[in-house]
Amino acid sequence: MLRWAVLIAAALHCGLYTCADGLRHKVLYPAAHRVKRGLVNPTFQHSVEDVKLLFEILLAGFRMEDDRGAFSVRDEELASLRQTQELANICDEVLPRKLTDIRRLTAQLSRYQGHLRRPDFERTVLTMVYTAYQLAHTTGQQRDWWAESFLSLFSAIKHDLTVQ
């Protein structure tokens, strides 16, 4: 009987701790926690080489169409790498691609306290890259909205880097 009481108390304590931790660290990218293609909470950068590869991909050129278009790299050799395919998965499945979703993200980031976790920081930078891409390929009122979102993401990243 005592064993069951201890087990139930431990389960309740673990559940309360998990809920409290979830409230303290609001999920900024809910799509990252859905199981897709066998990955949960995928990240691209695991080493300095991955950072260099990301920079090389950005320099070589890529295409990220609207919210339905797939991420693609223009350089065939880079596109064939496993890490590039992981990046495409993150861009296609995790990052917000609609302007409304990006604006919702920037609102959450403006209320976020403390430092972003590494995966959230990475996704915020990639979202900013997507926003810059869209900014370069739109005109009129849409361009103003993309520019506003880009500046909000930049401010969130700057705040995260400078907050003590």
TrEMBL record:
Record has Signal as a keyword: yes
The keyword Kinase is annotated on this UniProt entry: no
Domain of life: Eukaryota
Keywords, ordered alphabetically: Signal
Signal peptide annotation: 1-22
Pfam families for the chain: FAM180
This protein's name: Extracellular globin
Naturally occurring in which organism (per UniProt): Conger conger
InterPro entries xref list: FAM180
